Amino acid sequence: MASSLYKARSSLLVASVILLLALLVTAWWYVANELPASKYKQLLKAVLLAGCTYGVVGLLQFMFAGFGHETFGLLCKNCGSQIFGFPRVNGFAAEPQFYANAMMVYFFVGLGAFYKTRSRLSLGSTLLSLLAIGLTFSRGAFLAVGLGTVLFFVLLRTQRQVRFKTLVKHFAVLVAAFLVVGGLFIGAASYRYRGTPDIAYKTFRSMVQQASVGIIKLPASKSGTGDFTPAGFIEASGQERLDAAHLSLKAWGYNSYTRLVGVGAGNLGPFVVKNIRPNAPNNLTVYIFYVLLLSELGLIGLGAFVVLHVTILGSYIKRIWGHKNTAIYTGLFCLGAAFLIQYCFFGSYINVPYIWLWFGILLGAGRKEVKAL
């Protein structure tokens, strides 16, 4: 920080990282040492109720914004129907991806609780949170949830906690939930832009193109543009992210000092402008958290981050392997894995305190045997 060209921002971000670490340590200490085992069921119930509540919030937000004109001032600037034909919900978060990332907590906790208790509350949390995640139309969250869910099913099956036929049936239910989301997207676009020929197909085409990052390209409609044509995948946006990552890696490799400790927290933009590309934005950031950490904190910072998170997840290996009734622990493990996948799709020190809070909870819960779980 002493060599930072933007000392105010660097000081803010360093303080933020320290506070996040304090949050993690506090959560770990409370869960591991102060939270009575009798309170775990209450905590679990509260999480499941929150999943149902925030899932309904996302669903209502989509209904009001997609089939009406009321957003209640909550919908973010670029979340409206003008791009894809349907709104992308963001709940109370700044962007859809943060809302989706936060909702992963309720999905994986609900999934683990369902295989433990088969309760309606756990099923409701699982399905409603999954619907809310789907309605964000966030690619990073889709990948994190998809891979995390596959990992959850594989671990359960490896532990022989559930029959293969049951897993297939339950996985089909989750896929059906995503198909419902697709139907809501197409329905909202068809309603709002009902004067546009082939609007259902155009919306489906933009969805496929966006979800596949432009890899899958369906033929365009022959009916003309009409009143509205969904923008679909915006190639320039993806290219901007790749360019930012490329500049970040150049900054990291500038010399041996930057390789070791980085250019300084919050100092990426000014460093790139001064040493690499003068016309780059002064507030340059990169939306891949691992690359951001590497460029600003160097190998030491990234290494410490990886070791911390791997240690936390490693505390679950013995807990979920070879023991009975470990579905909730497996769900928590897969939640942590999903967070690490989601880090590949956004970069921020200060917008993700819930991740550090939950990693602290994961660490505390993974260090003790709780019969309630």
Description:
With 373 residues, this protein is mainly α. It has a domain at 37-232. Helices cover 67% and strands 0% of the residues. It contains 14 helices and no strands. It has helices at 7-34, 40-67, 96-117, 120-136, 139-158, 164-192, 199-211, 235-252, 256-261, 268-275, 289-314, 317-320, 327-342, 353-366. Helix 3 packs antiparallel against helix 13 (327-342), helix 8 (235-252) crosses helix 11 (289-314) and helix 13 (327-342) runs antiparallel to helix 14 (353-366). The longest helix has 29 residues, at 164-192. It is globular and about 55 Å long. The mean pLDDT is 85.
Detail the topology: elements first, then pairings:
Elements lengths: L6 H28 L5 H28 L28 H22 L2 H17 L2 H20 L5 H29 L6 H13 L23 H18 L3 H6 L6 H8 L13 H26 L2 H4 L6 H16 L10 H14 L7
